[in-house]
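The records we work with from here on pair a chain with its fold. Taken together, the tokens spell out the fold as the letters spell out the chain. The record below shows the convention in full.
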Amino acid sequence: MSLLYNDTMKIPFEAQGGAVTIGNFDGVHRGHRAIMKQVRELADRIGGPAIVFTFDPPPARLLRPNEAPEALTSMERRAQLLHQFGIDHVIVYPTTLDLLQLEPEEFFAKIIVKSLNAKAIAEGENFRFGKRRRGDVALLKQLCDEKGIEFSLLQLEQENGDWISSTRIRLEIEAGNVKAANQLLVEPYRISGIVAQGDQRGRTIGFPTANLQAIPMLCPPVGVYAARVAKLEAAHSGGNASDAAVLTSNADPVGMPVALHIGPNPTFGVSGLKVEAHIVGFHGDLYGASLHIEILDRLRDVHRFASKEELVAQLTIDVEKTKAVVASIKLP
């Protein structure tokens, strides 16, 4: 159950009195899964719900808008995954400058004690809270001890000697190393966008593409990637687009391979950045639908080809490689 509240005084009784962890949890990676397991165990021990308290937008978007990183996951998907890991309630609280100006002691009193009525709180050793991030786990433990709240220091997951973190995953994606990023995530990296009408050049050479726009999360750099369809939704209904009137298709595309092109199209003299998905074996119109794509591996750089025939030959190779990558990965 995900909750969005503009007022912490209105958090319902069933989402109070439990074991709480606070953070952004962007990307929902293996480290987060390990954290949620510990929070679930703590909640069971104290006999209360397991609660995640998070913020939307992330504090950096307000404090350092020009430096704030792009999101790795939508808040909706984040909450879905956290629930799968045993969390009872994901409370998404709108971030305001007033909230960010609270001193650590004020934040503890207002949010953790008064609004959440927490019986236990669990955080990793790198946790910071309050104005200018002055609060650390030492202060948090002191405040918990004063109020009789159980404090648990979480054991953070490591990979090759380093913490698994959203920052580490973001760096891998920004470098195009999606395969490496996926080893740290609990599911392949996913981007989502609305299918808009493009130049329609692809269909003239036998490789029609869905042109994705309004992508709210971080995109890998320019290149061609092997991917697959994770989900398809009709924009007007929010439901499963397979049965929506907006589509005419030969099959449900979920799970189908996708040869994903990110960047310009120099062969046709197009310099603007585009995100174009060729769904292998799918025939239909997806305009207006929301398409969610899992990116599995990087295939190659973007090149300018001397002729349409050379381009078609390379796209044929891309499709075969994509099919092989998708076939090698077990669907969840």
